[in-house]
Amino acid sequence: MKNNVRWCYDHELANGGCLNVHSVSASRSFLHYLHIGEIEIKNNHITLRALDETSDSIPVSEIADIYRGYDDLFTSALTRPYGAFWSPLRFTYGQGRRIYLIIGYSILWTKNKQWYTIIKDLLQ
Q1: Which fold would CATH assign to domain 2-123?
Q2: Does the bond joining 81 to the residue before it have cis omega, within 30 degrees of 0?
Q3: CA distance 52 to 35
Q4: What's the distance, Cα to Cα, between the start and end of the chain in Å?
Q5: What gap in Å lies between CA 74 and CA 88, rounded to an integer?
Q6: Maximum distance among all alpha carbons in the chain?
Q7: How far apart are CA 10 and CA 41, in angstroms?
Q8: Residue 116 in 3-state DSSP?
Q9: Vertex 71, ends 89 and 40: CA angle to 5°?
Q10: Where are the domains of the chain?
Q11: Do residues 60 and 122 touch, judged by C-beta distance below 8 A?
Q12: Per-residue pLDDT tens for 49-87?
């Protein structure tokens, strides 16, 4: 299974590295993620490949927690209109690393709900 994706790691988001502050405050649109590319689930690994050649491969077995929604780091205030149409997908893996994803983004909608269900099922 594949789809387009935008993602950011917790440490990048905490340092403000994931967003373009001017465009977020001016347009109230979603975060301008550092990493934009493709996500794929294959052989019990989630592979992320960015247009800038950044990549990550996360074994499903390393995912400790999966969550769809906002938290203290990625708040609804960072999206337009304050999270009314979609929320990020977040999972914790490895040594407590968190990754925030927007999968299948298309104007007002994402495919985060579908991917949440798929990954949650893989974890059981």
Answers
A1: PH-domain like (2.30.29)
A2: yes
A3: 7
A4: 18
A5: 8
A6: 42
A7: 21
A8: helix
A9: 15
A10: 2-123
A11: yes
A12: 998 788 899 999 999 999 999 998 888 877 766 667 888
